[in-house]
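Archive entry: two folds, one per protein. Generate the first.
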Amino acid sequence: MENMSDVKVLAKEREDMYRNLLSGRIPSRIPISGAMGLDSAIKYCQMDVAEVYWDFSKAEAALDKVCQDFPSDSAPGVGRRYPSYYQILGSKPFIMSSDGTMQHPNVAGMTAEDYDDFIASPYDCIVDKILPRLYTGLDTDSNTKAMTLSKAMKVQSDDAAVIGGISARLNAKYGFVSMAGGATTGPYDFMADFFRSFTGISSDIRRIPQKVIEACEAITPILIKKGKPLGPSTFGQVGIPLHMGPFMREKDFEKFYWPTLKKQVEAITEMGINVNLFVEHDFMRFLDYFYELPPHTILRFEYGDPKIVKEKLGKKHILSGFYPLVMLHSATKEQCIDKAKELIDILAPGGNYMFGFDKGAMDMHGSISENLKAVLEYVYINGRYDDYYKGDNKDPHEALKLKRRSEIINEIDKSINSKYFTVWEKYRESHPELDGRPLNIIGPKIQKYEDMMFNFIINLCS
């Protein structure tokens, strides 16, 4: 693919392909989502992971090499776990291992006694109680805490800017398409991951079930806001990884997990964006629940029977995943290609399919590089549709969806009961010195930085 001379033609092909896919039409070919992220790209190029993570300017060479060597319709993922700001904050949830990989130990920043405060004001409880337990740099006096938080937010912003510049250059060089995007977490998973831990939340649903329900409901608007797409467009995806469901009884899943997740997915879809759910581990007994989600929701499966999933969900939703990454380590090239062919035969008919793996690659030892390249090349050559949609694929309702997006976010902002978050209208009321100033410029700027701090705080919790 890197030999295609007209990058603009390739970019237009990809844009049409993804627009068709995301709107439920048959694309010209199966979009390919590669398995490599930043860690595996660094290891593929035999560079030092820790060094690159501390100096992201060194990442461009590794990512560029991956784009040259491995067919894919999107650039390698770069993630958002940057050790610099975690170090400044004294992070417990994310620490760098001896080989440079960012790891997530099992931690709990919230006690069972915090539920009432959390339900009353999730954001205040996070700032006042939970973050100081998760980050030692915030467990201090108010002045030091403010300075630490400011430094951390600045270095995270600087690192993100470097990564953003690299991504933009790779997009331009290789014809990748820029899409609006975002990431958030399901409400029950959010409560379990850093706050109550696996064991804590499992105990809570037996001891204090109503408080768990109320806490999930209280955090849902904030997590909808967290998933707000970057950029004013309805062309893109918001990712949500699903963690805890497979470890729950169905009656608990139905009661605690599903209602707020469904509400969240529906709200983000109403804002004009496709939700991409990473269906981790074994969710097969919950397929009927997934059918309730809005059309064109993307479901990337780590585990399951693709024939059953295609039959139950393939006409309404976009499917991905299933390909076992471990096979690239242990099987022959022919066996790896045969597996890709098997999945294409099952999942590709009628469209609504994006080729992808069950998980992202973390290392490149053994035969994985050669097998990965062979599989991706096979899909690129053989994953074409004869009956693809050739008409106008722009979203005719984009303006209305963007208007609704603004309305939903404004409703959420006004509902956030917090001394640490202020909407522009409230800020304006308490600052009469702004009378006569260009409020149409000042308002969005003040709100922008209010939202930046909000997003930084919530990202520290997931």
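Generate the second and append.
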Amino acid sequence: MAEDRLWAKGLPLDAAIHRFTVGEDPVVDLALVPHDALGSAAHARMLARVGLLPESDMRALVLALRTLHDEARAGTFTIRPEQEDGHTALEAALVGLVGEAGRRIHLARSRNDQVQLALRLLMREQVLGLGARAVELTEAFLDFAQAHVNTPMPGYTHMRRAMPSTFGMWGAAFAEGLLEELESLRGLWARLDRCPLGSAAGFGVPLPIDRQYVATLLGFSRVQRSPIDVQNSRGRHETAAVSWACSVAGGLEKWLWDVALFSTEEFGFLALPDAFTTGSSIMPQKKNPDVVELARGRCRELRGLARQVEEVASGLPSSYHRDFQLLKRPTLAALGSLREVLEVLTRLVPVVQVRAETAARASDDTLYAAHQAYVLAGQGLPFRDAYRQVAHQLADGTFKPDRTALTATHLGGAGNLGLEQARSELAAARSWLTETHRALAVCAERVWTP
């Protein structure tokens, strides 16, 4: 077992201590191996470029790393418990494929910057994938809003009927929220778009390495300059990524809550297709919105994972600490959970059925109280007096508003949802994601090209 560890010095290690320090890495690191392989190939190219690795060794390493990358993507790469983590397993597999050259790959780097690079590459991929799914869901909400742009429904505040709204206005709200999240995604991307490799254990290496070359090879726009800050950023970038995921989920949770509420028999504004409900083991009539409730629960679970990341990363001095190992599982779990929620909602939004007649019946005259006050104010009555006059009419049962007198035609109002502007912004977000993904794919292919 001792020689399977990268740091082994031939000294004994207590088996219980080994199990405790290894933790979940043999399972968690499987997601990192493809990215570790790509980063290692770029590292090998850099070592050859600066004369620290024979060209023949570099070519053998890149070819072997491509094979291991593909195995990891296919799910056939394994990490044995005695190998401790994915980095050890990858190096052992390299040695098995190319012999002595595999032992040269670790020159001028530490596991600290190796794992940082793999995590950074993984988070870049995950963020782009989540962005693409958010685009699809935004489009689904915009389509829903367009289809129901004039379908009335009550607007609520304090869970009480408040003012006239439409299903189009309701659906557009969640599209707009996602558009804002897609905008903030660019800021998250800028934080991740810097290459940590070359920082080693946090103090650089006394060798003529070329950090900018590696950054360019892997499609980073810059080098993360300070080696100490590379280590300090463990947790900082994970927190930023998971916090973005939580923000996205926070908006979606409100939609899920609304659907659960509005599809009850008491409201009856919405209905879910049978294929999106489950039954009861005892009550034959039940059609339960389990998918809605579980997705809503996932949104709250995300906040718990974010708190876990924050707690593990906080309260530490600068530089590297083994505590950081515990950041991987909740980070990957959070990003994976959001991906599943986005995928499910993209299927659910288009099939939610609007019961327009029921919602129209609930849109009674009282919803137009504020509108009627505005009508009176437009006739010259001070608004506070108009407010009181309408309140008196409501109290004595004489309130009869003119429902057609006023419409909110300002941008975003029920009469002007701004759907075309939203679609234009969505197209820009989609274009950025597509171009960024394409550019990274080109960089990866250059790394792998013999």
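Annotation attached to the second fold: The chain has three domains: 2-107, 112-362+419-448, 369-410. Residues 111-147 form the longest helix (37 residues).
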